[in-house]
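$ ./design --mode recover --in tokens.txt
reading tokens...
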């Protein structure tokens, strides 16, 4: 237990100091100034059965106070709940022009969301000279100046991709336990400061809000070059970086998700549908991830309890110190989400849930279910 406790503490010291300061929440839009000419922008919204959230999210896009020319294109991806008709009703209230289009069922080799994005971007090319495309999910609500600030940031810093991690909804008990940790773990995998460093190997984006320079997207072959991707946002950022584009990722101040996750089941499905894809469907990476999560997140409280039970001050001190560093790095994310700080010591329990979700994702993959999303399955053995 001494070796386990020492290993866990060493891992946390390294994570806190050498993993791009992932735990800090001060990576926001870079300094920006208004361009002399505001470039035309098209907003593409893939939507499949989104009637529940559209009355909140779509009006926020139509109400954007953008000084240049902008339009919204909602791609109704085979919805059965009246998403397209509702979008037209909302557009009748005024605001930016809205086009509603339907792409039909995806061709083999395409994930549904990227098939919808392909259809939307093709329509952008046909309709005009938009220099930027804002890809935003149907559950994302934007502050009135969101588009303006994104374009100003891209212009000022000469960025080809600007992505903000939307502030997710945190209301229910399970959302309080799972959601802040989701963003915390994402930042640990893809430290924002490292992503934003020119020439860095780490590339990532947050799919709910991505402003993309159209010329660079075409140079990167997007979305065709990433048509198979289940984790489309990270894959998109990698494609843009490979094409020589400059990318930026940070936390959002003006974008929020309005999608509710009232119970554990919906949150479980959100995580497990893509967790094994993140590991490239590799049993070896899965085993390493389980072992790593156990050492980093589960070992500290176990070592503390074992040390206290066995009367070993060394083991208890090592476990307690590792747990304290872990909880300390989680505090900024809890503050960002305006959550009680007493949730920080509960992070090992939340990590255990994520471990089980990851294992379940692998189990579903080998059962032939793959990454299921709104009636479609991707990434299963034999699936298109």
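writing sequence...
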């Amino acid at each position: 237990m001494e070796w386990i406790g020492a290993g866990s503490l060493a891992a946390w010291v390294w994570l806190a100091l050498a993993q791009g300061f992932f735990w800090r929440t001060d990576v926001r839009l870079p300094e920006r100034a208004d361009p002399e000419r505001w470039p035309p922008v098209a907003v593409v919204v893939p939507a499949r059965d989104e009637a529940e959230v559209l009355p909140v999210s779509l009006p926020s896009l139509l109400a954007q106070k953008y000084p240049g020319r902008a339009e919204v294109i909602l791609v109704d991806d085979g919805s059965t709940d009246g998403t397209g008709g509702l979008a037209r009703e909302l557009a009748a209230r005024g605001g930016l022009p809205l086009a509603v289009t339907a792409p039909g069922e995806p061709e083999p080799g395409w994930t549904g969301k990227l098939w919808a994005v392909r259809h939307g971007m093709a329509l952008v090319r046909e309709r005009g000279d938009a220099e930027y495309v804002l890809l935003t999910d149907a559950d994302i609500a934007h502050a009135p100046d969101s588009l303006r600030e994104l374009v100003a940031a891209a212009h000022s810093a000469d960025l080809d991709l600007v992505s903000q991690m939307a502030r997710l909804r945190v209301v229910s008990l399970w959302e309080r336990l799972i959601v802040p940790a989701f963003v915390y773990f994402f930042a640990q995998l893809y430290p924002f400061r490292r992503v934003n460093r020119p020439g860095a190997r780490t590339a990532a984006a947050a799919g709910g809000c991505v402003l993309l320079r159209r010329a660079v997207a075409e140079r990167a072959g997007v979305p065709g070059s990433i048509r198979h991707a289940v984790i489309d946002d990270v894959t998109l950022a990698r494609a843009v970086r490979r094409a020589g584009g400059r990318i930026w990722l940070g936390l959002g101040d003006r974008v929020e998700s309005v999608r509710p996750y009232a119970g554990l089941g919906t949150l479980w499905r959100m995580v497990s549908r893509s967790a094994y894809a993140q590991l490239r469907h590799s049993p070896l990476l899965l085993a390493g991830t389980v072992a790593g999560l156990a050492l980093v997140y589960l070992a500290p409280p176990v070592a503390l309890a074992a040390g206290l039970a066995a009367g070993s001050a060394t083991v208890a001190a090592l476990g307690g110190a590792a747990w304290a560093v872990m909880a300390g790095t989680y505090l900024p994310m809890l503050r960002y989400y305006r959550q009680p700080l007493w949730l920080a010591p509960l992070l090992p329990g939340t990590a255990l849930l994520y471990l089980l979700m990851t294992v379940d994702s692998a189990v579903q993959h080998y059962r032939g279910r793959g990454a299921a999303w709104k009636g479609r399955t991707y990434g299963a053995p034999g699936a298109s």
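exit 0
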